[in-house]
Specification:
The protein has about 350 residues and is α+β, with helices and mostly antiparallel strands. It is built from 11 helices and 12 strands. A hairpin with a 7-residue loop joins strand 4 and strand 5. Bound molecules: adenosine-5'-triphosphate and magnesium ion.
Length: about 350
């Protein structure tokens, strides 16, 4: 087979690909391979180009056994690491020296690796979160069977703790299911026409008992007054504001006031069109800036101990973010230590007929 024909075939492969024959030199490489490994790689010895020991070894093995070999190639373009799966296959009857050549194809598997890492982390997190209350429950069952058997007062106290722990597991499972549902619907656009002002009012009313227990004043400012119409999913938006206001009470309640403000904009700078901004602000201790970028990650808690004590699962803001994404909106968090935090939800306000498209 002529060199030109070989080069043609290799260049038609839609992934970085190169060929090495029995002289151990690269006899063809497509554009993607040259972008990955260097422009002038054809005619060079493969070991001076591939360099990574496991790749050299796979290539040698494939040349020697006239068979297949598979390995990983790690690349870094200065900004990020990329992992390639390299598949070497022997082709008979091609190459300068009679015999054959190895075709090596590089497939980017970075996303697959990241996804499987995320899945492993997620399972580890969930197991850990469930195990903590479970261990407590098992411990108290033991105590109730043994030392506390005849002690009515202790029994009452332990049963209360067990109820709290069971509730915590229940909340965690509920949050996980909710996150799952929200994620699976993320690409489906909401269709319902709703009044955001009314929705916020009723969300606040249902959180009043919690606020009163924490001695926090809840205040709604609606400017301008009146209904604020929006296309959205009312159950999900209620979940967003419930979590943000609840967080304000739980973590920022020491400031004594949680304020919810709705504002409409004809042309919002972030949305480049009509939008509503809902701001939930508290005057609590605030959040250290180092935590801000990771706050919406699953299970991330800024103040681990306090959050757990308050029964938090660390999933609330992850759910908020997914719901806001589904509404094509934005979530902004600003916070200053000692001064409090402001969570802003910006939602685009299209007209119902535009939303139908
Ligand atoms: N207003 C706030 N002030 C200070 N810290 C906050 C505030 N809101 C959230 N946080 C921090 O962000 C973390 C993540 O919040 P998120 O709502 O995701 O989880 P959670 O409240 O711990 O659990 P859940 O909402 O599932 O019950 C909290 O644990 C808390 O440390
Ligand atoms: Mg929360």
């Amino acid at each position: 087979m002529s060199d030109d024909l070989l080069a043609e075939i290799v260049s038609a492969i839609p992934l970085p690909a190169l060929m090495v024959d029995q002289t151990e030199r690269i006899i063809a490489a497509n554009t993607d391979a040259r972008t990955l490994l260097g422009q002038n790689i054809v005619t060079r010895h493969f070991a001076t180009i591939l360099r990574q020991p496991q790749v050299i070894e796979a290539m040698e093995q494939s040349l020697r056994d006239k068979g297949r070999a598979k390995t990983r190639h790690l690349a870094n373009d200065g900004a990020q690491d990329t992992t390639f799966e390299v598949e070497c296959r022997y082709m008979n009857g091609v190459g300068a020296v009679s015999g054959g050549a190895v075709l090596a194809v590089f497939q980017d598997v970075t996303h697959l690796e990241q996804a499987s890492q995320m899945r492993r982390d997620f399972v580890a997190n969930v197991s850990h979160e469930l195990r903590t209350p479970l261990t407590a429950l098992m411990g108290f069952i033991e105590t109730l069977r043994g030392p506390a058997r005849e002690d009515a007062a202790a029994r009452e106290r332990f049963l209360q703790i067990m109820t709290d722990e069971a509730n915590r597991m229940n909340r965690l499972v509920g949050d996980l299911l909710s996150l799952n549902r929200v994620e699976s619907e993320e690409r489906v656009r909401p269709r319902e026409e709703l009044d955001l002002s009314g929705l916020l009012q009723s969300t606040i009313n249902s959180l009043r008992p919690l606020a009163e227990d924490a001695e926090v004043e809840l205040r709604l400012t609606n400017d301008p007054q009146g209904p604020v119409s929006l296309i959205g999913d009312s159950d999900q938006l209620r979940q967003v504001f419930t979590n943000l206001i609840e967080n304000g009470i739980k973590y920022g309640g020491s400031g004594g006031l949680v304020e919810v403000r709705i504002q409409s904009f004809e042309r919002d700078t972030a949305m480049r069109g009509p939008a509503v901004r809902v701001q939930i602000s508290d005057k609590g201790p605030g959040i250290d800036p180092t935590h801000l970028p990771r706050l919406t990650e699953r299970f991330y808690r800024a103040d681990n101990h306090r959050s757990r004590q308050l029964g938090g699962t660390g999933l609330g803001l992850a759910i908020v973010k997914h719901i806001v994404n589904r509404h094509r909106g934005r979530l902004r968090v600003e916070s200053e230590l000692g001064k409090g935090s402001v969570f802003t939800v910006i939602l685009p306000q299209q007209k119902p007929e535009e939303a139908q498209v």
